[in-house]
Amino acid sequence: MHKTLRALPSLDFLRGFEAAGRRLSFTLAAEELFLTQSALSRQIKALEVALGIALFERRHRALALTVKGAAFHRAVTEILEGLASAAESARSAARAPGVTVSTTVSFASLWIIPRLERFRARHPEIEVYVSADDRVLDLRRSDVDIAVRYLPDATAPEDAARLFGERMLPVVSPRVLARGAPPLRNPGDLAHHVLLHLDDPEGRTPWLDWRSWLASNGQPGLKAAGSYRFRLYDQVIQAAVAGQGVALGRIPMLAEHLRDGRLAAPFPKRYDSARGYFALTAPRAAERSDVRHFLSWLIDEAVQEARVGETREPRRGNTRGNAKPKLRRRSK
Question: Contact, 267 vs 169, CB < 8 A?
Fold first, then answer.
């Protein structure tokens, strides 16, 4: 048995193979596992060499499992699901009761955490664990009860609750403008300011790229006075609040920053993302009362955010950017 276990392929290789076989795309599987496409491809090749068989047929712009690959994929999937179930049982026995919520680091720090006090006021008996991680966790295999994800509307799961969409607009600390910095009356004035960028070498968040916003606002070749780059979006916003430059803001994630004056939005024109925030519930947790209470609170907060935005933001015509966000619960 010990020799057999030593001969097992790497668990990372098996996870990569499972994802690639399920998605039939190295690119999509790599995104799911937060790897580069080339890294995942190397893993699959190494697994094929270790097993001595071809697992995939690599066609032009297509990927298919071989007959032996399909059989191995079924076995690997069953085993990984069994391991995930065993791990979940162990975690459940060890952890304190409560709701585990997964979302990105930025959404957790900028939107959920500032509002948690209101949830505790409504349900003081429910413990909440916020798991802030930019990895996309499989709700079937992790100990997460609710995940809030930023997804294209067309790819959101049918049973997801859509909270709101998102608008992009430049934001800056009012102190920057008050201390005599060049005014920001139109997008061309950004040439006199430092721009704060989210570092995205693999192009995973093109909607947060200054080039996209500038091109859509008639300034495709604008050269800023300087730039800073940050790995995480909440770091970009911390730098903006500190007066270090102009950031590309995400509304409603930064709605409270605009309302309390930490940031200002100098331009009325907004760039709309084709994505939205969705709350997904793990199938095993859907019937738990604490999970249902937290999901209901999330939806109520989203509705309230839409109402506040509708009353406080000046209307500038009937545009998508100023319309009240629609909230719906998708049905199967």
Answer: yes
